Each structure stands twice: as C-alpha cells, then as structure tokens.
Amino acid sequence: MIFSVIMAGGKGTRFWPLSRENHPKQLLSIVGDTTMIQSTYERIKPLSGSDRVIVITGSAHADEIKKQLPEIPPENIVAEPVGRNTAPCVALAAMIAQKQDPNAVLGVYPADHVITNEEVFRNTAQVLINALKSDSKKLGTMGIVPTYPETGFGYIHRSAKTLNNVYTAKEFCEKPDIGTAKRYMESGEYYWNAGVFFWRADTILNEIKNNLPELWEKMKPIDNAIGSPDFADVMNEIYPDLPSISIDYGVMEKAGKAGNVLVAPADPGWSDVGSWRSLYDLVPADDAGNRQRGKVITVNSHGTLVYNEKRLVALVGVDDVIVVETDDAILVLNKNQAQNVREVTEKLKEQGLTGYL
C-alpha cells in the first residue's frame, strides 16, 4: 500500500510575527484561503487516500491539525513530545506504516510548501513510486528543476538516467555560493532539494539502522509500543533523548554517494515559502511591483509587500520593504533581509518577551 507522510513539526520562525510557536506557518492560510497543511493534504490525498495519510507534528499542534484535517483518522496524527529533526520523524512514520503493511511505500512531504502545478507534482510522485516497485532497495527524491541560481537551497547532482525520466543521484550538495549556483544552472545536471522523498518502509528503516545505529536502537521501544495503550507514555519517555538529526544528513547524503538514490526532475511551480521574501515572489504585483494582502494604499512606492490582518496600512515614498501587521506586533524589514527575521525571535527570548513568540 501507498502511504503519505506529512512532516508538520516546523516552527516557522522566519514568518514571525504571523507564525508563532502555538500557531506556526503550516497551520496558517499564508497563500490562498486554505491553510498550508490543508493544501498539502489535498495535494497528496489522491496518491494514498485519506486513511493512509500519516501526520507527524508537535504535541502543541496535534489537536488543531485534527480540526483542520478531519478526514484523517485521529490515530494517524501523531504527536512528538519534542522536535528532533526529520530523521526520527521519518523513522516513526515508517514504523507506523510497516505495522499496517510490511510492504508499505511512503511518500514524505513537508507540510508548508506551495505547489502551483499539482498535476505535475503528483505525476512525478507516481513515477518515483513506480520506480521503487521495480527497485525496492533504492530511495527516491523529487528534484526541482531550478529556475534561477538560488544560493539558499541544497542541490542534488544527477548522474546516469535509468528509465522514465528517473536518474541515479550522484551527490547531495550543500547550499552553494552564487558562482557555483550559476554553474549548476548551466550544467542542467543539478536540481533543488525540496525535501520530498519516496521509499519502502523497510528500506528506509534499514538505512537508518545502518547509518544511524544510535537512533535505531533508541527507537526500538517506540516501535514495539505502536498500537498499544502505552504508546504515548513510551513516546514521552524515549523521544526527548533521541539524537536530533536530519534525514538528509543522516541518510540521504550517504545513500546518494553509494548510488542508492533515484531522483526524478520536476517543475511543479514549487516554493518552500521559507521567508517573507519568498511570499513576495508568490503574490501578484501591481504596475509598481507592490504586492499586498489586506487594506493597503501606496504612493510613490515600489517593490513592496504588505501583509495586514485588520488595520489600513499606507506606504509613501518607500521602496523594497515588507510590512507585516498583526494584533500585537508590526514587522518592517528590507525585503533583502528577510532571512534575518529569526534574529528577532532570538532577541525576544533574550529580553524575556516570550509572549510575542
């Protein structure tokens, strides 16, 4: 059977002040009228059906996700007591799926990405799922065809083509400088790493066992408790002591070097919406390049984004700024400094202003 796993444990700190600890980015309707996790669910539901969607999230958000996604069986929305990055999340989902079907194939998706061409996305996912049926020991990933030389993403370097527009991945590359990113673009052999993965449950668990033995050993009691009345207690006892490591670093980079990763390129109109600048690129602009959500007036202003919930915002004679207004906070930033918003949340912690987090 095919299972869809939604990873929904992120904090979305670069989307402060809209994204907060108790109501992070994936639970918000930042783009469009539905929340980001609702959009993700509707996108991947045709691949697996709603009864085989598994959501891994933080304990503070599980109840809200159950409200937002009522079609998913409540037991499939699993709460992590603490966040431990993506490797434990992936292992937990694979263990749960394997209990239902020893031959389970998983698609793993971040909860907070935007896809504008969902048909292309699903078709590429199906290509990888089909490829794994004939080569069950491989891991699969979707590579986003780059549209510009981005320095904020990791890249996947492809090598030989296998079949049906699927390649063997040669290497997972760190975020490049601008010169390297341009070379990647020109070669046509590199794709953005979107963190969208496909694998059999037994295959990824075997990779975790071989590459992350400490994680594997510590998660055995959790595996044994799945489906039992003791599951929540075991999670609360074991999970905080798990090593915090990403699946990319812990498994995918090593599997890529060993020739065990398949990559299928796609151009589905993908964005990780990783910052307010990313949202600026998604919102339609007026003739002066201004973008808005809410009540906004602009005079002699260019290249701005205003995101406001209630009050009118007026801009006069300002260029390249982003303004975000919420009930209790206002953010004003140069749009080219959007990656630094998380520093605001760090200063709020330092100054004891945790009520704004």
From TrEMBL:
One of its GO terms (molecular function) is mannose-6-phosphate isomerase activity. GO terms for biological process: GDP-mannose biosynthetic process. Residues 294-348 form the MannoseP isomerase/GMP-like beta-helix domain. Keywords: GTP-binding, Isomerase, Nucleotide-binding, Nucleotidyltransferase, Transferase. Its EC number is 2.7.7.13, 5.3.1.8. Residues 4-283 form the Nucleotidyl transferase domain. This is Mannose-1-phosphate guanylyltransferase / Mannose-6-phosphate isomerase.
